[in-house]
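A.,

Following up on our hallway conversation. Structure tokens first:
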């Protein structure tokens, strides 16, 4: 029973799982359509997206949500999934604003358009509602097999995260600043959508900078690594969409370094967690 009088037990409430199921179903659909059918967005999505690299970028980004919402829906430990709720709230709010600003660019009358509008109207409400309702369940205790994320490592991620968040917000407000130097063709709508995804990187590190438990970082790390690994694969598959050769594009190497950095962090912390379980 979800009441204030119940002692904290690290439970994930039914309402939180309902929100995850609702939003998770939509992001799973978006991931499949945009990543695997990037040339058919006019027929299958809320608006026609070009070039296909943009569709695959957005689809790859949605896989982060698929992993997160699946972890909420199938998991049983609240502290493992609390942090990404903050990033989802910020992202959904930005997408709602982008939808309003570019209302004329959408395919009105398409079923997916109605789903898009509905989801981005309710997500900025439901996500913080679930977060603040469920927060009381966190006992601030580690898992049996867990590790402390060193403060130095948290700062290493925090500094670029803050800079990246500032750049993403600025590009959202003024997309014409970034469009000319973006590695493939973009519009104000697609630019705002892409930097909204990138904003979650900065929000994520801000959310967990005071969170020492690796178990509370783990799901987010898996999601971010998978997200950017799929972006790298998309870039390799859609090299013809780029303005200049892919391997001469600084953005591509940024993505590669980001994947290696998240993989390295994951490997180090998993090794530490396994060592703590043997101690």
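Then the amino acids I'd put at each of the 279 positions:
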């Amino acid at each position: 029973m979800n009441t204030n009088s119940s002692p904290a037990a690290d439970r994930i409430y039914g309402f939180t799982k309902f929100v995850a199921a609702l939003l998770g179903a939509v992001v799973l659909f978006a991931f499949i359509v945009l990543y695997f059918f990037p040339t058919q967005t006019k027929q299958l999505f809320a608006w026609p997206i070009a070039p296909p690299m943009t569709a695959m970028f957005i689809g790859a980004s949605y896989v982060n949500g698929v992993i997160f919402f699946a972890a909420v829906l199938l998991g049983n430990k609240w502290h493992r999934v609390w942090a990404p709720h903050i990033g989802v709230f910020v992202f959904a709010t930005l997408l709602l604003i982008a939808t309003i600003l570019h209302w004329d660019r959408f395919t009105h009358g398409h079923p997916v358009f109605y789903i898009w509008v509905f989801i981005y109207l309710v997500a900025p409400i439901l996500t913080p509602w679930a977060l603040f309702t469920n927060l009381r369940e966190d006992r601030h205790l580690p898992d049996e097999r867990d590790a402390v994320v060193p403060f130095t490592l948290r700062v290493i991620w925090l500094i670029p995260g803050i800079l990246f968040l500032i750049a993403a917000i600025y590009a959202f407000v003024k997309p014409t600043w970034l469009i000319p130097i973006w590695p493939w063709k973009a519009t104000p709508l697609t630019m705002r959508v892409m930097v909204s995804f990138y904003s979650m990187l900065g929000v994520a590190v801000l959310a967990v900078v005071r969170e020492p438990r690796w178990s509370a970082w783990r799901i987010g790390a898996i999601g971010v690594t998978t997200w950017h690994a799929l972006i790298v694969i998309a870039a390799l598959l859609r090299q013809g969409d780029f303005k200049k050769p892919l391997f001469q594009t600084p953005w591509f190497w940024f993505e590669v370094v980001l994947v290696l950095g998240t993989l390295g962090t994951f490997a180090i912390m998993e090794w530490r967690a396994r060592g703590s379980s043997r101690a």
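The chain has a mean pLDDT of 95. Curious whether your intuition agrees with the design.

B.
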